[in-house]
Design a protein that fits this description.
Layout (H helix, E strand, L loop, with lengths): L2 E7 L19 H10 L6 E6 L2 H10 L3 E3 L7 H9 L6 E4 L9 H13 L5 E7 L13 E4 L5 E5 L19 E10 H9 L4 H6 L3 H6 L4 E5 L10 H19 L1
Parallel strand pairs: 1-2, 1-4, 2-3, 5-9
Antiparallel strand pairs: 4-8, 5-8, 6-7
Helix pairs in contact: 3-5
Amino acid sequence: MGNIVIIPARYASTRFPGKLLANQTGKYLIQHVYEQVSRAPLVDAVLVATDDERIGQACDRFGAPWQMTRSDHLSGTDRIAEVAAGLQAEIIVNVQGDEPEIDPANVDRLIELLQTDPRADTATLAAPFEPGDDVNNPNIVKVVLDRQGHALYFSRWPIPYQRDRDYTAAPDIYRKHIGIYAYRRQVLMRLSRMPPTPLEQAEKLEQLRILENGLVIAVAEVKHDSVGIDTPQQYAEFVRRFKQKATVEGM
């Protein structure tokens, strides 16, 4: 298998415990994610990596392969690395289990980046800021790129800093990072053994570990971000959108 998507799936969640098993749409939240990424033509297999039997049992019900992992991983990257260590694959894509509306084309775009850019060790996505997005929001991670489309830096601070202009008047130069990654398998194995780095610890951004160790992150720009589910309120909004779409398509 050349290209594998691994979905790290923890049961615990501070703001929404057990959210991956929420099923007000008639499907588990993680089932939506699994089905979306399975539609990507370049994906050869999709696997769920979890630390909880309840998620594994749900995967059995809708037919998704899954693997139990250790419960003490500090990040989703470490969780997928544990699974990837036992797989024969060229490219591993990390898709969060709370992204039910992820565009399958974006998954393929990541894979294409690594297939066509020999310098790239990993790949990720970025999107323009949309009306209403707050550049100052530290929860929206910003990324700046070089002319080859490689990441220069990620930050919670508005970057680039516009010395002679009001950054609120020129939001078009900012790009927000979309937290989906593709890794060459051997690079993922290396990353899982690397200790946290100073910039990573300062910004609390794991992707800075990649840059601080001299690796190259290729970035594809897409038009829109997908909406992750962090709270019950966000899930309720997703359920509303899902049912509205189902009604329209059923007409």
